[in-house]
Amino acid sequence: MPDTSPHGPHAPHVVVIPLSDEAATAALARRLAAILRPRDLVALRGDLGAGKTALSRALICGVTHEDAEVPSPTFTLVQTYDTAIGPVWHFDLYRLSGPDEVHELGWDDARAEAVALVEWPDRLGPLLPPDRVEVMLEHAGPDIGPDARRATLTGHGALAARIAAADWTP
Length: 170
What we know:
Elements: E1 3-5, E2 13-19, H1 22-33, E3 41-45, H2 52-63, E4 78-83, E5 86-92, H3 107-113, E6 115-119, E7 132-139, E8 149-156, H4 158-165
Parallel strand pairs: 3-6, 3-7, 5-6
Antiparallel strand pairs: 1-2, 2-8, 4-5, 7-8
Helix pairs in contact: 1-2
């Protein structure tokens, strides 16, 4: 059962979800996809290997088709998809040296019409919108299992209410 923390009407809403394995991560991705709309931003945080790309891949497959080819945008920096929830742009900003470089990747178009999944959102600096979902993925620890993770979802601004209202139970 996920832990939720109560907040005031305009404060961020936080949900902590244990993820026992990659299947649990995929299930979380499907639940997250169900609340997303065009112009939403999902900021994916976590160390290398924490599961940011796995969660993104599962979300994209969930709104396209199960066997969709979803390459990591590590080298291309952005991949775009036509999906059931509208366009989805998957950004990996790890190699950017500053926020201004994101405009060359079609950032303005993505923000105007698409759901944006952003790995390494700290590279956005002041371009990170106030209305967003932050997903922090962390290794849960070797005592729980080698593939176990913990996801902390934080809804900011307009997305706080959607995070609070969603059913996060597997």
